[in-house]
Amino acid sequence: MTTRHHTGWRSLAAGAATAALLATAAPALAATLGDWDVTGIQFINADCSRNEYVVNATFTGTVDDGGGFDKVRVEVWDDGTLKDFRVVEVAVGETVDNTSFLSFVGTYLSGVPGVGILLSDADAAGEAGPVLDAVDPFYPEDEDGPCEFNVERIGGANRIETAALLAQRFIMADTVVITTATDFPDALTAAPLANQLAGPLLLTAPTHLPAVTAAEITRLQPTNIVIVGGETAVHPDVEAALTAIAPPGATVTRLSGANRYETAVAVAAEITQDSSPQMYLATGQDFPDALVLSALASRESAPLVLAQAGHLPAATADFLAAAGYDDLYAAGGTAVLSDSVVDGAAAVQGATAHRFAGLDRYETASLVLQEFPAEGDVMVATGETFPDALTAVPVAGRTGAGIALSQTDHVPAAAITEIQRLTSGFAFPLVTIVGGEVALTATVHDELLALFTTAGDRAQLPRDELDSNYPG
User: Fold this and answer.
1) The domain boundary residue, chosen from 144, 172, 198
2) Is NADP set as a keyword in this record (predicted)?
3) Would you give the distance in Å from CA 199 to the centre of its chain?
4) Whether residues 121 and 170 fall in one domain
């Protein structure tokens, strides 16, 4: 069981440097911060250390920074260096509970004690403004655990075990999402929801709850368990088993419809969009073209709905008519989704239609991946089956990583190009292979490792001249 350092506060007793930051903070027109807390772990092994922080905060939007949303910024600093940050959008006039994941590779005790966690108002561009609150130093717990560099693998004996191993990258989660392991549509649309709810996407057998899935739910102790799919996909016996292992007071709910298209709409209705509303459209008849599209929808806080190749189902059409979006994105060529379907879905709201279509699933996936900015991380999953790529989505969302698709024993050239773009120039790049060697062989690992000629130096030089993790 993970030991967590969990500190909650409303009014923070800060150190001298933090107090100086706060002294200039909080003009009247800034987002309002309610209760907030931090959980932190530093995973250490012989090769390197990886810091992970979960910041839970309640924000109220007050200033329209664009599209009716206020922006705030959550940062982690170490030894005067900004290590990671997230920009959070809050609708003006609304109060939301937000979870932000922050991480970096390195040993926090190399200079100034601890790390600094800083919450600030932000401008329309997401740049930090007045400080709302901060803590410095904050000390994570040290724990033996996963820390790799350049190329790592997260893979179990099967798709259900791999999903459980991916879930272990969450040091805490208030919500977990559950779908069937045997078919793709529910997982395809559920991945963006799991990402938005800051929890993992776990898999179950249709008629019984696997032990590894149950074990992860027991470890995380979520307050909400969301089943996606009808009773054929996830039998009532599974729901009963989930209710039995749920913590006291936790809720178990189901999002479903009469078919995959209605279930997708039920999930899409739960997605809260940001200031740049978008819609994502995939075929409900096969998975390859849509795997990375689901990851992009997650990144953009947008719903993903399903259509047939030459027909927009009534449930999808009704949802689109009631939704708001400026751009619609679809994956696959005209044999997958016809022009009439894609253009018609965009026309419902007068939106602009965009299509990602390559010569095959791998090229299509790489075209979608081009929409991800380079942040030093990328996950690689098989394009032959659906579960690994989709259960990786919430984990990728924690660090902003993109997801590339690979053949079983060879990484396609288009994917290699995007992986290089996403990781080049970073001091500590990381490619995560998702799935065991049956899904992606050792040859794939070797091809990816060959992209990195040298390992990054994990050591941090002492910064004894600093008395704060924040600059200045």
Assistant:
1) 144
2) no
3) 8
4) no
* pLDDT band at 3; cut points 50, 70, 90: very low
176 falls within a domain: yes
Classify residue 128: in a domain, yes or no.
yes
Claim to verify: residue 43 and residue 109 sit in the same structural domain: yes
Q: Are residues 113 and 169 in the same domain?
A: no
Judgement on whether residues 173 and 273 belong to the same structural domain of the protein: yes
pLDDT of residue 472: 61
CA–CA gap between residue 368 and residue 370 (Å, rounded): 5
102-140 residue pLDDT tens: 998 876 666 778 899 999 999 999 999 999 999 999 999
**pLDDT of amino acid 148:** 74
Identify the domain boundary among 100, 117, 144: 144
Same domain for 253 and 358, yes or no, is yes
pLDDT band at 13 (very low <50, low <70, confident <90, very high): very low
Q: Is residue 467 part of a domain?
A: no
Tokens of 113: 């004690």
By residue range, what is the domain housing residue 84? 5-144
